[in-house]
Amino acid sequence: MPKFFDLYDVKLLPVRISTAIFVMEDSHRLFLQAFMTHYVMYTKEVKEHFAMALKRFGGDYELGSFVITINENIKPLNLEIRKGISEKTGNHCYCLVNASENHGILKQSSDYTVNELEYFKKLVGEIAKSPEGSISSVDALNQVDKLENVKMSKKMAQDLIDRFQKDLWIISDVNEGHISLDTRCILELGHYLKDTYEDFIVNCEMCKQICLQGQSCGSCRAKLHHHCAARCFRNRDSPKCPASGCGAPWPYEQPERVEPSQQPTQNQGRKRRR
Ligand SMILES: [Zn+2]
Ligand SMILES: [Zn+2]
After folding, report:
1. What segment(s) does the record annotate as region Disordered (predicted)?
2. Is the pLDDT of residue 13 over 70?
């Protein structure tokens, strides 16, 4: 007489369970379509698309598990919806990223040629290594001279920068004259940045996400996003570095009160005079 488990291949059980949990319905597909068009959406927009999908196709879902179901289904395509925070605005957002081998766009892109990606990689590297998390627009254009085996004019580089910005990879701030990485880029290339530039990439002491543009402690490696610093030091007269074992006076003045939609940019959170 065979035992119960001999009759069933127990290895199949987890598969059966997972397909039962992660079945994509039409509501998931509609929601995913919005990401295919926008790539990055702030939480408010995401909630609107989620509500729209449920209203149209029904279902009793909670946003978190809804996204997990989609992620399980798009994993074979190396796609993933990741949650992050915009360094520029401090607003939470969701982003559809290429999760392949953690090199995302740098390895696979139908939008850019190999040479164009070489230039992009150069920009990403220079920005990652800069203490401010940004480089000047002039510096960005000058990187074409440092490309190996790639010939590119500055005019071509400028056109490319415009395209990278339009596709939400970088932010080119014309008023400040500097270029930084957009949230899509940080979320998609997070592992790549940490692996390749481990001596330069630091996580924010508050939100524990990668911090490129932010405030740095003068005594240790600690960094805080501008919006995280504003929250951390709100109503504190003499803010101190939150890193364990440091506690040095925090060398920035914080704006009085900060709403998430009017977060400080480079200029705000000014460095205190010593
Ligand atoms: Zn932070
Ligand atoms: Zn410190």
Report:
1. 252-274
2. no
Numbers of helices and strands, H then E, in the chain: 12, 10
Range of the domain at 152: 105-186
Query: Rounded to 5 degrees, what are φ and ψ at 122?
Result: -60, -45
Per-residue confidence at 259, pLDDT binned at 50, 70, 90? Answer: low
CB-CB contact of 227 with 143 (8 Å): no
Distance 208 CA to ligand 1 centre (A): 6
Domain membership flag for residue 82: no
Q: Near ion ligand 1, which residues have CB within 5 Å?
A: 204, 206-207, 225, 228
The answer to whether position 195 is within a domain reads no
* Tens of pLDDT, residues 239-249: 999 999 999 99
Q: Is the dihedral of CA 94, 99, 103, 107 positive or negative?
A: negative
Contact 229, 255 (CB under 8 A): no
Ligand nearest to the CA of 251: 2
CA 137 / ligand 2 centre spacing (Å): 30
Structural domains in the chain (count) = 3
CA of residue 54 to ligand 2 center, whole Å: 47
Are both 220 and 177 inside the same structural domain? no
What the block records as the tokens of 45 is 């927009």
Question: What is the reported pLDDT for 267?
Answer: 47
